Amino acid sequence: MQFKVPQNIDMQDRILGPLTMIQFIYAVIGSGICYAIFSTVPKPFSFVLILPIALFVLALIFLKINERPFLDFLFSLSAFMTTPKNRVWQHDVASNLSVEIYQSSPINQNNNIQTKQFTHEQIQEMAKRIDQKR
Question: What Cα–Cα distance (Å) separates residue 66 from each residue in 12, 20, 29?
């Protein structure tokens, strides 16, 4: 019996044009925030507030860095900025370490390993047979 194996199962479904569900949610929330700012703040100041928010939302929706979503990049950036960069070896803590050295057991000489030697022509013939079966 043959079964169809699903392909590209890690790809998200497109629900509205090129947008996935999460991208659509980002767009709705971002446009709602921009509309709320536009309707409550006076005109020249609203554009100053809307522009960075709109750019951030567009980056969340469409921008990919190294084939990863922009949100993953932001999480990685925040983790990089918050973790310490210098590692300090504390000599006091390492003084109570013990080291044990194990010797490997001798290799059994009775193991007969069979090897086959192939000529260049035999290898080429096997490669041709394999290519013909595809």
Answer: 18, 19, 26
